[in-house]
Amino acid sequence: MTEFNRTTRKLRAISMVSLIDIVFTIILFFLVAGHLEKASIIDVELPHADAGQRLDEGPIVTTLGKYGEVIINDEIYEGRAIDTALKKEFAVNPERVITIKADKNLEANKLVDFLEQVRAAGGKNLSLVTDSGTEKVIR
Asked: How many domains are contained in the chain?
């Protein structure tokens, strides 16, 4: 048998620096993306409350703007469409909590009118969001 001349190569060290940079970049992305809040359709300045009970947002999130805008689960409603949307939401389960974010500059009678619409549609559990991060529960 004949022997072949073999050349020996030096083993290169695998550089982990670029892999570590990529991993940290991905982790940073998910940290930032995980904490982003959904932008609201209208700006609402919440009233301040000194006391209250902290609750999770209910499955029905409602926003009332200072000019009387009504947004239910990220869709704007007007007039009779509000009653229809509320009845549709409560038809599934009348015990669902409706979270109401009302602007502090909204006229009180408009808020009361909306609360009456919720009760007429079959809503039983209301949650009013305030500025201090607490909510007052009306049952």
From this structure: 1
Residue with tokens 């670029």, as numbered in its chain: 18
Q: Are 41 and 78 in contact (CB under 8 A)?
A: no
On whether the CB atoms of residues 103 and 44 are closer than 8 A, the answer is yes
Residue 15 lies in a domain: no
pTM listed for this prediction: 0.57
Nearest to 121 by CA among 50, 64, 72: 72
Determine the Cα–Cα distance for residues 97 and 99; give it in Å rounded to an integer: 6
Per residue in 100-115, pLDDT (tens digit) is 888 888 888 888 898 8
| CATH code assigned at 91 | 3.30.420.270
